[in-house]
Amino acid sequence: MDLGALTENLIALKETVNSIVINEDKNVGDFELSVERFQVLLEDLIVVSKAQTSPDPEILKSKLYQLQITLEELNNFCGHKLNILSFLDDITPIN
Asked: What single DSSP character describes residue 53?
């Protein structure tokens, strides 16, 4: 898996997600929390991808799993406006 390419795609997704407006008041807080979790995980992946050493596969696998869950949450909020889950094709399990 190319972490650099994945993070570039996720950075583009971050810009798109930040521009989405959720009109249903009850979901705004949950959406914002999901966006914050996504941004934190993205920053972690950027750090890992730029590290001089190879990342620990178990740590990377955990972060990617958390990212997948967060992207699924975001997709539930804005799936009708954006196909977020198309990015999950780039996240493959690590053996």
From this structure: S
In whole angstroms, give the CA distance from residue 16 to residue 19: 5
43 vs 41: CA distance, rounded Å: 5
Please give the Cα distance from 42 to 7 (Å, whole number). 7
Q: Which helix (H) or strand (E) holds 9?
A: helix 3-19
The answer to whether the beta carbons of residues 17 and 35 sit under 8 Å apart is yes
Taking the whole predicted model, whether its pTM rises above 0.85 is answered as no
Q: What percentage of the chain has pLDDT greater than the value 90?
A: 2
CA distance 20 to 40: 18
Containing H/E element for 61? helix 57-78
Chain centroid to Cα 8, Å, comes to 11
